[in-house]
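Quick one - inputs below.
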Amino acid sequence: MISTKQRILLISNSTLHGSGYLDHAENEIRDFLGGARRLLFVPLALYDRAAYAAQASKRLGAMGFDLASVQEDDPRRAVEHTDAIFVGGGNTFRLLKGLYDFGLLEPIRERVAAGMPYVGSSAGSIVACPSLKTTKDMPVVEPPSFAALSLVDFQISPHYLDPDPRSTHMGETQEERINQFLEENDVPVIGLREGTMVRVEKGATVLKGITAARIFRRSRAPVEIAAGSRLDDALFADAQP
Amino acid sequence: MISTKQRILLISNSTLHGSGYLDHAENEIRDFLGGARRLLFVPLALYDRAAYAAQASKRLGAMGFDLASVQEDDPRRAVEHTDAIFVGGGNTFRLLKGLYDFGLLEPIRERVAAGMPYVGSSAGSIVACPSLKTTKDMPVVEPPSFAALSLVDFQISPHYLDPDPRSTHMGETQEERINQFLEENDVPVIGLREGTMVRVEKGATVLKGITAARIFRRSRAPVEIAAGSRLDDALFADAQP
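Output:
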């Protein structure tokens, strides 16, 4: 179970069509991070970590945060000496492998359990979940395990796209992929559309942003939950212990 | 390197919009399998293996093959006692995990090296490659390794979709995902559009079907190769040894 100390903001996507990097999430990030000054950015999901860290530093620096990024030298210490952490999106397999390679999973878990705010975007949202099994990314590198941070008890499926009735493409839709996940895993999934976020605070899980989310559970019909609503019941009511 | 004995047919997709299961590939499958009578079907990529085997048995039985399918009891023996093998599509992670669980990788490799025809479709095409790292499927189960059959020296990216210039979705395109693969792995990739196939025979790799394929290599611009053409030069010319 999520401890009531945990504070987690999971964003579907860093960039929304027609706006700049993190623009659509800025107000929510500001409100969520409140008085935090030092923010540690994790750029492990992209190949060019230095360029990614520079981009994030510029954007989050403009919001008034004092930004550091995970570097080769003593990344664990960086986790200990920050007010909050921001895990950027990109390739989820690469990100999770990086977290293992740098030995960051346990330090992040400990600090989040003690109340340090965690912000994730896209792949950074998925690795907050029990595993990376709901990613749509290509498995371009092989992490030692699919097990992720387990900060929350549900899975995020970010960039959630509704089926396109005009499509003639025979590949699976995102809903079909999530149903494959549920065939193999009994863990609730939030289909998180672009422009939306999940905020976990005081033991409550709330949907933020511009549109509804689609909640998937094994052996149940998916349900739509409106932005601004609590997701807890849709995710966990009547769950097997 | 591929031995000149190897005979491999890798299909992008089992079902093409507007036609039935395997219809678009039937002539090529018949021509490729020639005099083979006994065909072993591998239904490990779908959750309901029995239903999948029944569907394939009906379809390939109607083409005149004597169909068996990989079962729990002695699947290795089934690989030894068939004229050809057909590995069906579905979820690539589930398929590769199944091949490991049933101990089928080495028996299939040995028989294909000795000349047994291999037909794969979608996920069944990817597992013929060095790894599953070019799948678009969701990693709903965790195989013990990403290493696959390595029957060929290239990767297939099936159901290849060209970028949609009208899209407002900020998720990666298939080309962007393949470029992420090439950042991490120096292995050529065939973007195999629906309705197309790759046929490997007598040491030559030929594109079959209704349209061109897009070939991706590290540090080179992608190239389009027309249906009916050999792919070998586009895949391997000037490769580092």
